[in-house]
Write a structure and sequence with these properties.
65% of the residues lie in helices and 4% in strands. Residues 24-162 form the Orc1-like AAA ATPase domain. InterPro entries: AAA_16, NLR-like, P-loop_NTPase, TPR-like_helical_dom_sf, WH-like_DNA-bd_sf, WH_DNA-bd_sf.
Length: 799
């Protein structure tokens, strides 16, 4: 087998031993120990079972493959051994008997019969021809599949017959292995895979992914998303590659504690080095370094001199000395070339990890900020969780989660890098970015260079062919998404700058971005004027965006006119079954529903489901989402059985495809609960709403709209069943959260206020209900307008 052919197969079982050896890095001693245990098993009755622990992409499969081939070599040399290499993904193992059958089959033995028969087959085979070495990955999955009884039987088999020697891997030590009451607690000789320490981490991880058959991981490590993550960590680490493997994209959440330990260990090792270097500086040099470390942003010599209260010329000499000694570095940016006066030089700390020399002294037992920075920038919002946290590491994870709720730097950096966005508000920082880019085009780089370093790096990492004006349009799109589709005074400066961009560039894209802003401010006449003579897919997308905003504003007839045009254009330009055409059908269906044309809406949604089923399959996440959407229309039409069936199918399918606690799965369960409540099955709906609410709190956080909506539906069901006290408490809590996060005059806050008014009326407090409803109507008349359908619905509370 040639190396190229071996790697292209993406599976270790087809790789040559020579290729495996060539790709193996950094774990020779561990591999030697594993092979020694196999050799010892062939010589006597000792059985030293191995468990290799490491996150996905850490090279476990590579090591197991090499151990297998070296065991084959031992067998060829005359050792009494039998080998059984189970599939990497043991989907077919669903019980103890299936595990034994898989082992027997892999060893070339009869695999029929019940568990007792298979135990006998394996034991007799080991007696005749030597122990069976079982190479198995994802042991945690297998232990879950065989259950506690199966685990007990397996342990007895391993201890009593000594027929098998286990060489197993797992991504983490779960309860089956860490709980003292479980059969396999303390059973294995466990080795945790240490991270790689090489410069070319990304290339090496891709090679390992190919060698271990993880084609998805290999492809992912070559994507812009993976590069963005690595780039962010490289910036935080100052280009230190030694932590990269521990931060690989497939790192399991259960490895967070190990990750924090690893980072702390690495930083603890580095701190004396930096402190020793710092001690060699002069007092003036040290104070300049300390200020650069505290600022965490570039600064000019003039500003730094002012902050330190020293002579600018003298400090300029000090900075030059620090540059020569590797402590400071002039800031460069591809966006500055040919645009600014080269005499305007800004400086920053050359090695960001040098801040450890100061942070270690300043933390006084508190978590190191640099560790929290790694966590909050590396992990996606749905990957951080406290489920497996323990000890001192818990505080780090808590702070990282809090940062993803509050830190706009993380939010903007991830948005610009096209990574999954965090929940932190980001409009103010996006405003800074846009203004800094505007000033940059005028020759003033100071505001841009003083942006938070991760944000600046994310901007610089955008395609080099993009002019600054195009980057500004990306920033405007992010800000528009953040501000939403309800008019707000904060939109005014963005509209003004978008108008300047449209005028100065004269491009269609800039003009269409202005149209989107005008629509979001509900200045629809101006927005429609801007759409005149616009064509092409960009114009179609803008009309679709304006239509959605018109729908949000209660301008359903305008939304209908635009959506019918969009659907016709997308069908003509992209085809009837293109994903964007199907989205246009779904949007039109929603508008039909708002206009009371539910039968037409249902027909459209059914056509979307049929098209997606044909294109993607019934079990795809997109098809299941369309099914979920269809269930709401069935519910509106009173077709309760169909509503329930489609909601159940969607919830069940999304759980299988995306997992029980994926946000889309949780939303499908919440919708299912609403269907159950509408069928007056509140005894089933209320527990389900509680379950979903608890999960959304863990996964999405206490401020996420989906979590708050689930809590609202729970409160409504509680009120209907006469549990008024809890219902009122829930709605009051939701209103408090929304008022803090969105403001008291946001539509969501006002809708919750109206729900609270209804709850008080149901509880018999009519005066309180009328007072709250009056407040809600007054707010909605200002925000949405007196003729908006939602305003009219709340008005009916006043009689």
């Amino acid at each position: 087998m040639t190396p190229g052919a071996g790697i292209s197969r993406y599976t270790p079982s087809l790789m040559s031993p020579e290729l495996l050896e060539r790709l193996f890095v950094g774990r020779d001693r561990l591999l030697t120990a594993v092979v020694d245990r196999i050799r010892e098993a062939s010589e006597g009755t000792g059985r030293n079972h191995t468990l290799l622990v490491g996150p996905r992409g850490a090279g476990k499969t590579h090591l197991v493959a090499l151990a297998y081939h070296r065991a084959e070599a031992l067998r060829a040399a005359g050792r009494s051994l039998q080998l059984a290499w189970l599939p990497e993904d043991p989907w077919s193992i669903i019980g103890y008997r299936h595990l034994l059958a898989a082992v027997a089959s892999a060893a070339g033995l009869p695999s029929d019969g019940d568990a007792a028969t298979l135990e006998g087959v394996l034991t007799q085979a080991a007696t005749n021809d030597g122990p069976i070495v079982v190479f198995t990955e994802n042991l945690d999955w297998i232990l879950d599949s065989i259950g506690n009884d199966g685990q007990q039987r397996l342990r007895h088999l391993l201890q009593d017959s000594r027929a098998l020697l286990m060489i197993a891997t797992t991504t983490a030590i779960d309860r089956n292995l860490s709980d003292q009451s479980r059969p396999f607690y303390g059973f294995f000789t466990t080795s945790r895979l240490e991270p790689f320490g090489v410069d070319d981490a990304g290339s090496m991880l891709r090679a390992i992914a190919a060698a271990t058959g993880q084609a998805d991981l290999e492809r992912y490590l070559g994507t812009d998303e993976a590069k963005a993550r690595l780039r962010a960590i490289e910036h935080l680490a100052g280009g230190q590659p030694r932590m990269w493997s521990a931060l690989a994209s497939s790192l399991s959440i259960s490895g967070l504690n190990e990750l924090v330990d690893l980072l702390l260990t690495r930083f603890d090792d580095l701190t004396p080095y930096y402190q020793e270097r710092l001690a060699r500086l002069s007092p003036r040099q040290r104070v300049a370094v300390a200020e650069l470390a505290a600022l965490d942003r570039p600064i000019s010599v003039k500003e730094l001199a002012g902050r330190l209260g020293v002579d600018q010329r003298s400090l300029g000499k000090t900075i030059n000395e620090l540059v020569d000694r590797g402590w400071a570095a002039p800031v460069t940016s591809p966006l500055l070339e040919g645009k600014v006066d080269k005499r305007l030089t800004f400086y920053e700390l050359a090695e960001p990890l040098a801040r450890l020399a100061f942070q270690i002294k300043e933390t006084r037992g508190e978590p190191l900020r640099v560790v929290v920075d790694f966590l909050k920038h590396w992990f996606d919002p749905d990957e951080l969780g406290l489920g497996s946290a323990h000890g001192s590491e818990t505080k780090y994870i808590e702070l990282a989660i809090a940062a993803q709720f509050e830190d706009s730097v993380v939010s903007v950096t991830r948005s610009l890098s096209r990574l999954p966005k965090t929940r932190a508000p980001s409009v103010a920082l996006l405003d800074e970015v846009d203004l800094s880019l505007s000033r940059l085009t005028e020759g003033d780089p100071s505001a841009f260079l003083c942006l938070p370093a991760p944000v600046r790096s994310a901007v610089e990492a955008l395609p080099s062919t993009l002019p600054v004006t195009s980057i500004r349009l990306i920033v405007h799109q992010l800000a528009a998404t953040e501000l939403g589709r309800v008019r707000h005074p904060a939109m005014d400066p963005w509209i003004a700058r978008a108008g300047e961009l449209a005028t100065s560039t004269g491009t269609d894209l800039a003009r269409l971005q202005l149209v989107r802003w005008l629509a979001r401010a509900w200045r629809f006449d101006e927005a429609l004027t801007g759409l005149v003579d616009s064509d092409g897919l960009a114009a179609v997308g803008t009309r679709a965006d304006v239509a959605i905003t018109a729908w949000e504003a209660g301008r359903f007839e305008l939304a209908l006119e635009l959506e019918e045009w969009v659907l016709e254009e997308r069908t003509m330009l992209q085809g009837a079954n293109h994903p964007e055409t199907l989205t246009a059908r779904s949007n039109l269906a929603a508008t039909y529903s708002s206009l009371g044309r539910d039968e037409e809406a249902c027909e459209l949604k059914e056509s979307v489901v049929a098209a997606m089923t044909e294109l993607l399959g019934r079990g795809s996440s997109d098809t299941l989402a369309a099914l979920l959407n269809l269930s709401t229309t069935y519910l509106t039409l009173g077709r309760f059985e169909e509503a329930l069936a489609t909601a159940e199918e969607a919830a069940r399918g999304l759980a299988e495809v995306r997992g029980d606690e994926h946000p889309s799965t949780l939303q499908s369960k919440a919708n299912l609960a609403v269907v159950l409540a509408s069928r007056n099955e509140r005894a089933a709906a209320i527990p389900l709403l509680r379950e979903v609410s608890d999960a959304q709190f863990r996964v999405l956080g206490p401020e996420h709209p989906n979590y708050l909506m689930t809590r609202t539906n729970l409160a409504i069901s509680l009120g209907v069943t006469g549990q008024h006290e809890e219902a009122l408490a829930l709605l009051s809590s939701i209103l408090e959260t929304q008022s803090q996060v969105l403001g008291t005059q946001h539509p969501d806050s006002l809708f919750t206020l109206s729900s609270l008014a209804r709850a008080h009326r149901a509880a018999g407090a009519d005066d309180t209900s009328r007072r709250l409803a009056t407040r809600a109507v007054a707010g909605l008349e200002v925000v949405l307008g007196p003729d908006h359908p939602d305003t009219a619905a709340v008005k009916r509370l006043l009689g």
